[in-house]
Amino acid sequence: MAGEKAIFISGGASGIGLAVARLFAARGWRVGLADIDAAGLESARALLPGAATYAMDVRDHAQWVAALADFTAATGQLDVLFNNAGVPHSGPLTECEVAGIERAVAINLVGVLKGAHAAHRFLKATPGACMLITGSAAGIHGTPGAATYSATKFAVRGLAEALDGEWAPDGIRVRTLMPSFIETPLLDHTVNTGNHSVRQAVRAAGLEITPVEQVAEAAWRAVHGNRLHTQVGKTAHRLWFLARWAPGLLRKTMRNRLPR
After folding, report:
1. What's the predicted TM-score (pTM) here?
2. Residues labelled catalytic
């Protein structure tokens, strides 16, 4: 019914998006899930039978507009847009296919911009609304071997900072999550054209993998708190600390991790 708080989540069929959906739904929110993976949406609907689902490509602005209009027609409001959809992209830049670079930028950055553009009028019409964007620890300091991915996450960090000011007169808050390595299916992707998964590379580097439920709790805090950027996981907190207080040490450390 209209009046219940409502959250619309892109990339909602799995991973962080689905974990956030489950937590918000358990706390009484109406949930809209959008994803390009139609089969994944069906599985998500089995877990959240009350959720509205939309098979949608975030690169298509018209699909954003149609899905948000349909969702808000049912809910009467849009309290949170969780601009979450994203894809991994790794490997030395000069060894990456240009098509893969373009796809990562189109989804991780342009898709977020299109979502923000389409959602603004619905957020503006809802008092106390918020747009939450999934950033990354890779947006705190650039990650060697993941230049394109880092570039997109720095870009959405800048977008959030800009829109938090630009949209303030409209009563819209903008926030980001900056998770490090999270226990999601994205960790099963191979590192560029190699034979090792992201999960194997993370473990080989001695870094921790954070449960996705912790990210969902962080999303709840971000939406209800005052922090512009919320770091999630020990690696993200360390990077944030070093970027502020010991940038030279951080740069040296990251250069020493450069793939040879």
Report:
1. 0.90
2. 149
Cβ–Cβ < 8 Å for 32, 50: no
Distances in Å between the Cα of 201 and the Cα atoms of 6, 14, 90, 93, 132 are 38, 22, 11, 17, 29
Q: Return d(Cα 210, Cα 147) in angstroms, integer.
A: 22
Is residue 94 in some structural domain?
Answer: yes
- Domain total of the chain: 1
User: What is the CATH number for 71?
Assistant: 3.40.50.720
Q: Are 234 and 208 in contact (CB under 8 A)?
A: yes
Q: Domain span at residue 113?
A: 6-256
Round to whole Å and give the CA distance between 166 and 233: 29
Interval 135-189: pLDDT, tens: 999 999 998 999 999 999 999 999 999 999 999 999 999 999 999 988 766 655 5
Q: Is residue 190 part of a domain?
A: yes
Q: pLDDT, tens digit, for every residue of 207-226?
A: 577 889 999 999 999 999 99
- Specify which residues 175 forms β-bridges with: 132
Helix or strand holding residue 147 (H, E) = helix 147-166
- The answer to whether position 1 is within a domain reads no
Residue 63 lies in a domain: yes
Alpha-carbon radius of gyration of the chain: 18
CA dihedral defined by 46, 48, 54, 60, rounded to 10 degrees?
Answer: -110
With H, G, I as helix, E, B as strand and everything else as coil, classify residue 241: helix
